[in-house]
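README: folding subset

This subset contains proteins for which both the sequence and a predicted structure token string are available. Records are stored as plain text. Below is the entry for Pimeloyl-ACP methyl ester carboxylesterase (307 residues), shown exactly as it appears on disk.
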Amino acid sequence: MPEHVEVRLADDVRLHVEASGPVDAEVTAVLLHGWTLDGRSWHRQLAELRERFGDRVRVVTYDARGHGRSGCMALRTATLAQLGDDLAAVLDAVAPAGPVVLVGHSMGGMTIMEYAHRHPGHFAARAAGLVFVSTTAEGHTHTVYGLSPRIARLIRLAETTGAGVLARCGAWRPPRALLRALRPSIRWMLFGDRCDPTDIRLVTSAVARATLRSIGGFRASIGAQHRLDTLAALAHLPAAALVGDRDRLTPPPCAESIAAALPATELTVCPGAGHMLMMERPAQVNAALTGVLDRVLAGAREASTRP
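--- output ---
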């Protein structure tokens, strides 16, 4: 069973963290969820990692500030920059030593980039591998929701305006009855050709746990971030990038630009899949993640045998 840890940050926000495996494991894998979701997003990866690697890999997930079981925060801290700082603090608290493989879905991938940008020394000392799932380094540059550019601009305008309103609603959470009514829209936006009913229920449950401040507050930062230059400096790390060809939020050009910035990255495009790739195509995500972990573990063993 995973251990439950509360990490209290410098601004007194508490983060709900779950970890399994020994603190002195050979490698720690940290899995970061997307916007309005929580650590449960990775349930199909957690089981695979425990079965495949046992105590060799410590696995950490946590709910970002304003999400899941973590605490709410001041609106001014609803930024990717703050999430990058939070990641550094979580590593210090629950994985203070040894190599780390960082795995990010959507906003979680952008958090990794922000951590690398804001804490380059810390990142260089800890990060040994990267996995980017349905994410982008170019804000909303490629986001057209699978629609015509003109309609996409109208949707983005409405979304941005609505986000500003929600951001001022504080720690309130979306009414579950409303989310049940919106489930078909959530399914269309986040999933591709196939959707397991348990997955759409889990996603709806996660959105219901996110504060309105986090749902609205992070939108501006997510749309504005550009970190391709930061990625270009990380080309020496084992890495993988995955995307679904039906992803309406971070379509294939997002993953392609990440792979171009990291030339050694293994790029996987999953036909018929949408934005929730770790649920829709767990076998492909697990294969990419275990592939990076295998390379990092081999490198760690080689380093330990050097005189």
